[in-house]
Amino acid sequence: MEPKNFKRQTWIGGIIIAASIAAFSIAAVLFANDISAQASAITQARTQAATQSAMINAYSTLKADSATAGSYQAAMDKLLSTQDNLIGFPSQINNIAHNDGVDLTFSFEGNPAPAGPNIPGYMGFTMNAIGGMSNIILFLRDMEASAPIMISKIDSFDLTQSGANYTLSATGKVFFRS
Q1: Measured in whole angstroms, how far is the alpha carbon of residue 22 from the centre of its chain?
Q2: CB–CB of 141/168 below 8 Å?
Q3: Of 122 and 117, which is predicted with more confidence?
Q4: Distance between CA atoms of 172 and 153, rounded to whole angstroms?
Q5: Which helix or strand (DSSP H or E) is residue 80 part of?
Q6: What is the DSSP string of 95-110?
Q7: Contact yes or no for 148/127 (Cβ under 8 A)
Q8: Which end of the chain, N or C, is surrounded by fewer C-beta atoms within 10 Å?
C-alpha cells in the first residue's frame, strides 16, 4: 500500500470513527432525554392515580357516612328548638335557678342571628345569678345537664363576691333551628 493511500485511508477511517462516536453520543443523549420524559410522565400518572384513588376512597367513605350523618342530623334537629320556642327558655332557666337556690335575672340581647339550612341560628342573652358559691356551681351544672333545656353556650362570665353571696354575670347564646 502506498503511503499516500495509507494516509488517506487513515483519515477516512478516523472521520468514520469520529462520526460514529458523534452519532452514538447524539443518539444516547436523545435516548436519555426520552427515558427521562417517560419516567416523569409515569411518575405524574402514578401520582394522579393515587390522588384519584384517595378521592374515590374519601367519596365512598362520605357516601357510607351519609346515612349516619342523616341520623345525627335528625337527632340535632330534635335537640335544637325552633326560634318560636325560645320564649320558654327564660322560664326554664328560672326554674333551674329557683330549684338551686339562686336568684336570677335573665334577658335576651340584640337581634337573633338567623338559622341556615345546615347552620343553627342563635339569640344572645345576659343573666345575673346571685347566691352562694355552691348554689351557683349547682345551677351551672344543672343548666348544662338539664334535658328539656335548649342548647346554650356561655361566652363570658364574671364572678364577684359580695358578703356571703356571689354574683355571676354572664353573656351567652341559645341556639335554634330554622
Answers
A1: 60
A2: no
A3: 122
A4: 5
A5: none
A6: HHHHHTT-EEEEEEEE
A7: no
A8: N
